[in-house]
Amino acid sequence: MRAIQVTRLGGPEVLAATDLPDPEPAPGELLVRTDAVGVNFIDVYFRTGTYGTDLPYIPGSEATGTVVAMADGVTGFSVGDRVAWASAPGSYAELVRVPVSVAVPVPAEVTAPVAASALLQGMTAHYLVTSVYPVQRGDTVLVHAGAGGVGLILTQLAVERGARVISTVSTAEKEALSREAGASEVLRYSEELAVRVRDLTSGEGVAAVYDGVGRDTFDTSLECVRVRGIVALFGAASGPVPPFDPQRLNKAGSVFLTRPSLAHFVRTRDELLWRAGDVFDAIASRALDIRVGAEYPLERAADAHRDLEGRRTTGSIVLLPE
Ligand code: NDP
Asked: For 102-119, what is each residue's pLDDT tens digit?
């Protein structure tokens, strides 16, 4: 099979297209031929060594495709089924071994590029608005990187729950996309940001800040949140937040800080199917629009990473095997 393999950590150039032996499904696994592969910021953290991994490895954890083989004794799926997943290592490949526990059926009306973008970013947005801070009608929330993969989905889900969304973006094109997703106010990152957010909330601050940018926005996030509000620091696109004095949460107004991960919000099969089902249902009913901002051949995974890290992408991005 063709796959992307990483033999040393580093820049996008370490993502090398190569021929590897076809894998066999181990007990409890499906073997899936991929139709589209999701590219996520976490793939960058593994490639650069921010998160540890053994070498060599095949990057990626999210894709969609068709079941071509199953281990003996596997039930609940059949050869020919369309499935998607958010957490099977080695997904930048034509063939992927997918544990049955993480495979989710894909509704017929959801296209492959959308299915490959829906679960990791969609279920993240879902747990952020339902479980980390359950957004209430009338809340104002702040979404950083509002035109990114998670950002566009998060904005739509928060608006759907009755919130007013303020977002941040870096360009006019991204501003237009964030507004289309439902943001009422779209701001640029600047020293004035916290003042602007306070002005827009009668001096109160927002109920929740959803911050996937990290180092560059974290201090501002603390200045934008209301007394007893919550800062959900769910990523580090600009780099990790440095060590932190908890007393700052007191000064900010008895603020809650959490650093959540999707894995902890899909711990049981029931929870995974609930979140995935909500996301796929919303896509199928057109209540949720997943923007696939760019598609790259699998072989050009390095270009996809360059664009993602270079802030040149909008919405979700996918790799397409030949
Ligand atoms: P995005 O599509 O949002 O891409 C990242 C965006 O972050 C960029 O487009 C850019 O938007 C913004 N950004 C701000 N500063 C920088 C910088 N210095 N370098 C690069 N980008 C920057 O990516 P994803 O949707 O895949 O992920 C968004 C965040 O969510 C990431 O931090 C990711 O790790 C996190 N995440 C966390 C999960 C969890 O469970 N904890 C699960 C899934 C994702 P702009 O130019 O407008 O600023």
From this structure: 999 999 999 999 999 999
Q: Hey, what amino acid is at 26?
A: A
Return the ligand 1 atom nearest residue 238 CA: 18
For residues 182 and 112, what is the distance between their CA atoms, to the nearest angstrom?
A: 25
Domains of the chain: 2-119+281-320 (3.90.180.10), 137-259 (3.40.50.720)
Write the pLDDT tens digit of every residue in 11-30. Answer: 999 999 999 999 999 999 99
Does the complex come out with an ipTM higher than 0.90? yes
- Given ligand 1 and candidates 129, 155, 166, 213, which is best to mutate, with the most ligand atoms within 8 Å of its CB? 213
Three-state SS at 163: coil
Closest CA to 65 of 90, 40, 45, 28: 90
Substitution site in 189, 190, 311, 314 for ligand 1 pocket (most atoms within 8 Å of beta carbon) = 311
- Give the number of other CB atoms < 10 A from CB of residue 107: 12
Q: For the chain, what is the mean pLDDT?
A: 98
Distance 139 CA to ligand 1 centre (A): 23
